[in-house]
Design a protein that fits this description.
Blueprint: H1 7-25, E1 42-48, H2 53-61, E2 68-73, E3 85-88, H3 93-102, E4 112-116, E5 120-124, H4 127-137, E6 141-146, E7 163-168, E8 176-179, H5 181-187, H6 200-210, E9 215-225, H7 233-247, E10 258-263, H8 268-276
Length: about 280
């Protein structure tokens, strides 16, 4: 016998379905599909757990075959990622990421370095489109927006429908962030005393301003970030608060500002120009 769901549950499910449809149908993604972008020298580093290996494998498969990939597995490396896994065993995220970055010659990450976790997937777009967005819009530090269904720490990173890009003063240090060559010069090595990375955005703030790095959230793309319970969030929150206190900042909200927005309709001339530049063989 089927029981009728309570009205609030039904309303929430309908709302979720509508928001998901809006994410998938949002035409802003078209701003990143026109024309051909040069791939350049791109590298990805990630720390992962074996239970998330299949999700990470699908992400890595999106990359161009010339991309450099370095992975660290916190437990036993699974067969599907063993060739790309350069180390295994327990460790702290930023320390392990720095070690992986050090194995990659500068020439192999000149155009973009991706710092990736293992607990997200693209609902709209892909890793190559994230890389291209930085090239198209001249960014130094950038991330995809989060879909409505995504687990987030800050509402600032939630996707804005009808928006291609927000130039911002804040980019979150995970679950995936891209760095240009300029950003790598300024922001690397990652601050290892922050462990999992909470508070890195505060540490980056002065360097970003002093070197005039260009930050952005690419709303034409959307990721779904799964809720991870693999480490103690309370300890990370205490760490974040300590970093904020050290910088004299009350909240991360105080450094989360939008400098400018590119709406979808404002990108239409560029999309049409890209389409017209494609010559049939």
């Amino acid at each position: 016998m089927n029981r009728k769901l309570p009205l609030p549950v039904r309303v929430r499910r309908v709302a979720t379905a509508l928001f998901t449809a809006a994410q998938l149908l949002d035409p802003s993604r078209l701003a990143l599909t026109g024309g051909r972008q040069e791939w350049g020298s791109v590298a990805l580093v990630a720390v992962y757990r074996a239970r998330h290996a299949e999700r990470l494998r699908r992400l890595v498969q999106q990359l161009h075959r010339d991309a450099t990939v370095r992975l660290w597995c916190l437990d036993e490396p699974p067969a599907q990622l063993r060739d790309m896994t350069y180390g295994s065993g327990p460790g702290v995220r930023f320390t392990l990421l720095n070690a992986l970055i050090d194995t990659i010659p500068r020439a192999q990450r000149r155009d973009c370095l991706l710092l990736s976790d293992d607990d997200y997937s693209f609902l709209v777009g892909s890793l190559p489109q994230l890389v291209s967005a930085g090239q198209v819009f001249g960014l130094d530090l950038w991330q995809p927006a989060h879909a409505r269904s995504s687990s987030i720490s800050y509402t600032f990173v939630r996707r804005r429908v009808g928006t291609v890009l927000r130039r911002t003063t804040f980019v979150e240090q995970g679950p995936v962030v891209a760095l240009s060559a300029r950003a790598q010069d300024v922001l690397l090595p990652l601050p290892e005393d922050l462990g999992m990375g909470w508070g890195a955005e505060v540490r980056w703030m002065d360097r970003v301003r002093d070197h005039r790095l260009r930050l952005g959230i690419v709303d034409a793309l959307a990721i779904h970030h799964a809720l991870s319970e693999s480490y103690d969030k309370s300890a990370q929150l205490h760490q974040l608060q300590a970093v904020l206190d050290e910088a004299g900042i009350a909240s991360l909200d105080d450094i989360q500002h939008v400098c400018s927005r590119l709406r979808f309709w404002e990108s239409l001339p560029r999309i049409r120009a890209s389409a017209n530049s494609v010559v049939a063989p």
